[in-house]
Specification:
This protein is of the alpha+beta class and 314 residues long. It has three domains: 3-87, no CATH class; 94-196, no CATH class; 205-310, 3-Layer(aba) Sandwich (Endonuclease, Chain A). The chain is 43% helix and 17% strand. The strands form four sheets. The chain has a four-stranded mixed beta sheet with strand order 9-10-11-12, sandwiched between helices. It has a three-stranded antiparallel beta sheet with strand order 3-5-4, sandwiched between helices. The longest helix has 17 residues, at 294-310. The radius of gyration is 26 Å and the shape is elongated. The protein starts with a strand and ends with a helix.
Length: 314
């Protein structure tokens, strides 16, 4: 963490959470930093003690409150007016720690469904109506990734929990063995089953969801299937009924699909190369994968049957 110069810029040589910073302000006799700039650095919300440690004066804070550009969330907690309803502001204002799906999202982990209310760790008895409470010991404003994932495994629906857990491992934010070691006991059966479904080859949330649906439907799935002369296809899918020689490709197109001409051309090249090798490639978009996964297995089944008949397997 860094202190601020009078124009709101960070000072790389000072830690605002130490008393040395206050002494340095006195020695240098510099004007105090703008509370708006400090709050902006703290992602829109901070505790009074952190504002003071960063060099904000009580008078400057009072003036900003009078002008309504800063609001008081609760005793000793403040936020920028346009950030008062943010997830972080809710965490700071309730003296809680972001965890579970809220903490995962803050760490950049894939999240299937954004929660209506923030998930918070609180270590006091106060009832919060606009939050999902996880009892435990606070860890500042944001729990570490492992704590967030463990909470998600016990709190979220299966698909949501799998997305969070798999993403955390793929992004190297959590260690899969550590997650398994910390999900023991009779109450962790579902959590361990979810962790057993994690595949580190997944490259996107859609791949995670599509693969999980197809596997649960009885298909064998190869993530990031490498085909000579074609390249990588998101998923290779086959069924024991026809054998591994009868296989179809599945491509998942998110909202960012075809972000540029180069990507579009490469996609067409791979599609054409797959066609010359008689490899069917099915494409599914975000809405189908998330909301109508059943249509994926139906299309895959039809494609496999057609390919098996063409090759005399069926």
């Amino acid at each position: 963490m860094h202190a601020f110069s009078p124009n709101g810029c960070l000072r790389a040589d000072v830690n605002p959470r130490t008393s040395e910073n206050l002494c340095m302000h006195k020695r240098l006799r510099e004007p105090r930093p703008d509370p708006v700039a400090v709050l902006d650095f703290f992602d829109g919300a901070a505790l009074f003690r952190d504002l003071i440690a960063a060099g904000v004066s009580r008078s400057a804070l009072s003036r900003a409150l009078d002008r309504k550009i800063i609001v008081r969330l609760s005793r000793g907690a403040y936020a920028l007016a346009d950030a008062r309803d943010s997830v972080r502001a809710r965490a700071v204002g309730s003296y809680g720690t972001l965890t579970c799906v809220s903490g995962a999202e803050a760490h950049g982990i894939w999240v299937l469904t954004r929660p209506r209310y923030p998930h918070l760790i609180v270590d006091y008895g106060k009832h919060l109506t606009a939050a999902t409470i996880h009892r435990g010991r606070r860890q500042g404003e944001l729990a570490d990734p492992t704590t967030c994932v463990l909470a998600a495994l016990h709190c979220l629906p299966r698909r949501d929990a799998l997305v969070v857990a798999e993403s955390s491992v793929v992004l190297n934010l959590c260690d899969l063995d550590e997650l398994r070691a910390r999900t023991r006991g009779n109450g962790a059966v579902v959590a361990r089953e979810i962790l057993d479904s994690v595949d580190v080859r997944s490259m996107s949330m859609l791949e995670t969801l599509a693969r999980d649906h197809l596997v649960s439907s009885g298909y064998r799935v190869i993530p990031q299937w490498r085909v000579p002369g074609v390249g990588r296809i998101d998923l290779g899918v086959w069924h024991e009924k026809f054998g591994s020689s009868v296989i179809v490709g599945v491509e998942l197109d998110g909202y960012e699909f075809h972000s540029g001409r180069k990507e579009f051309d490469e996609d067409r090249r791979r599609g054409n190369a797959a066609a010359t090798q008689s490899i069917p490639v099915l494409r599914f978009g975000y809405d189908v994968v998330v909301d109508s996964a059943g249509s994926i297995s139906g299309s895959v089944h039809a494609a496999l049957c057609s390919l098996a008949r063409a090759r005399g397997v069926l």
